[in-house]
Amino acid sequence: MLLTGNKDVDFLILDKLEDSDLIKMCNINKEAMQLCNNNQHFWLNRIMSKFPYLGLKILTKYKGDRSWSQYYIKDLRKLNNANSNNIEQLFNASEKGRLDHVIIAMNKGADIHAQDDFAVKIASENGHLDIVKYLVSQGANIHADNDFSVILASQYGHLDTVKYLVSQDANIHTWDDFAVIWASENGHTDVVDYLVSLGAPRP
């Protein structure tokens, strides 16, 4: 495909290409590569059109120091086109703290309640409060497995997550007060003090 030399027209031509064709075009056509590399708004606009449900705030956070083209081609597009199970993507993203990936997995149809709400449990275990809040907003059940999420958050010392789960009526006494016991065994005195202030027995 030949470009016209008119920047505005050429951007329209490139924008209409499918991802695979666009990437191929940029790899073999120096003019196309320069146009795309020199105008990162082209890639941002493409991201926003492909993933309108993510929003600029989330996109900017997870883009980090990368260019928009790198973030799109090597991250978002790769994930969105992956053949892996959507539930596996959801679990991995919840564990690693990638809210952008969590939202993509959900948008692809991942079951938020899979494996007894494992996603919200592993997010709680790793202290990813933003993901816990998002999953709860989408209907995740923090009471799954007898309120095991608050136990995991306590065990690993994530006080903010513990407080949030309590605000959502998590039962701190579940599993014979395992939350305060495991927090104590792992030296998380701030979590212990907080749970004790709510009526948990001091170990």
Tell me the layout of helices and strands.
Elements: H1 7-15, H2 19-28, H3 30-37, H4 40-50, H5 56-63, H6 68-81, H7 86-96, H8 99-107, H9 114-125, H10 129-137, H11 144-155, H12 159-167, H13 174-185, H14 189-197
Describe this structure in words.
With 203 residues, this protein is mostly helical. It has two domains: 1-81, Monooxygenase; 84-202, Serine Threonine Protein Phosphatase 5, Tetratricopeptide repeat. Helices cover 70% and strands 0% of the residues. The protein contains 14 helices and no strands. Helix 4 (40-50) packs parallel to helix 6 and helix 7 packs antiparallel against helix 8. It is elongated, with a radius of gyration of 22 Å. The relative contact order is 0.07. Keywords: ANK repeat, Repeat. Pfam families: Ank_2. InterPro entries: Ankyrin_rpt, Ankyrin_rpt-contain_sf.
